[in-house]
Amino acid sequence: MSVTPEEKSQTGLMLDLEPVVEQELNRHLSMAKEWFPHQYVPWSEGRDFDGPLDGEPWSIEQSKVTPEARDSLIVNLLTEDNLPGYHRAIATVFGREGAWGTWVNRWTAEENRHGIALRDYLTVSRAVDPVALERARMHHMEAGYEADHGDSFLHGTAYVSFQELATRVSHRNTGKASGDPVCEQMMTRIAADENLHMIFYRNLMGAALEAAPNETMRAITDVVTTFQMPGHSIDGFLRKSVVIANAGIYDLRLHHDDVLVPVLRKWGVFDRTDLTGDGEKAREELCEFLEQLDAAATKFETRREERRARQAARR
Hints:
By secondary structure, the chain is an all-alpha fold. Helices cover 73% and strands 0% of the residues. The protein has one domain (5-314): Ribonucleotide Reductase, subunit A. The protein is built from eleven helices and no strands. Homodimer. Its EC number is 1.14.19.2.
């Protein structure tokens, strides 16, 4: 089977970056803290549900979390549920050998822990409808997952650099908005893992920028300008994302200010002097997009404040 120039270039870059992967893997393992999902679940609140055990059916009054946090928790968990698809996607790009493969498996194990904790908490605390949640899980996983940029190493690594940070922000703010101290504690713990994952990918992508600045800059721009969260295929995602944005859990302003810009600045993309040709063109496209996103975020914030003022006046 013939190998395309792009595949050959990607393979060579990954070979060059393998020492960086090993270094970042060791750093991650030295910083990651062992924790146990069962310690973040209020088991004493648990009781049987209706069904074979003839317990108490779920009703909305049993939920202690806010409606906005409820939607966000459902999206967060359903996103975690598609882990088999994410594992396949990242293992296809990174491979299963050496430090690359060790990272893939470690990352997958840590992400799986997040889903365990979230589902146990939501079920035991009766925060969400467990029947609707299970049906949504089945539908979402049956739809599967396909990476937006195929098996491109640079695009995939750029994507997770932003996505892991976006997930951290969403988890932290979901916990704060929940109104339940137990939920906030759990989401803070999960967010800490996501932050370490982001650092791994961010540092790896930073090394890629040094090794292949033009190709990497193009991948960054492609990802930023088409970015969508991995749970975008969840049933009702658009409605839930609007609720989540209106609550300030995750919106355009947070995406611009707390996710995109900090990572881009860490990579020094605005100050680089080694970009030429398509790399420079990609940076120009990125700057233009960020300006448009910043304007859209401001417009959304203004409209949100106007809505809140009208609601307050009616009350």
